[in-house]
Target: TetR/AcrR family transcriptional regulator
Amino acid sequence: MPSARRTARQSDLLRRLVALVAAEGFASFTLDDLAERLRCSKTTLYALAGSKQELVREAVKYYFRAAADAVEKEIADTGEPADRVVVYLKAVSEQLRPLSRRFLDDMAQFPPAREVYEANTRHAADRVRQLITEGVAAGAFRDVHAAFVGEVVAAAMQGIQRGEVTARTGLSDADAYAELASLIVHAVSS
Model:
């Protein structure tokens, strides 16, 4: 159900659902469990989505839509190109921080949710590529091949998303994004 057509109660329920699954994951929950934990009826949940799978996908979309908006607000008033890249990736990091490993693992195993995360990862990589292109054009960055740097960022983000970076380094997704911000800015700075 599009957010414009949600009631205030439905929006509140969706926010509470997002908080629950972000903290505890979603694979082990049944609709009965979710209704009990959220103190609502299954009928109320069905008003948000027609099945548990659709409900989970809706919650993941809601989370990442809100996260993307928050990230863009963070860089809106940032002028310096290097600061914009750092602020952007650190804001992504902060938006991922509340997501439990269980949620991330559940999302990786559930194709509809994983597709939402992958789409958001592609958007974030494209956004970094755009920020680097702007920084090169402004003379703030070395004359780097922004598309290549963007591809490196995308590959790193995909590794973070799939849990590979955590498995190899022990860094959380959020901490990995913070490290990526530092690496990229230092690599492209004049």
User: Anything to note?
Assistant: The mean pLDDT is 90. DSSP finds ten helices and no strands in the chain.
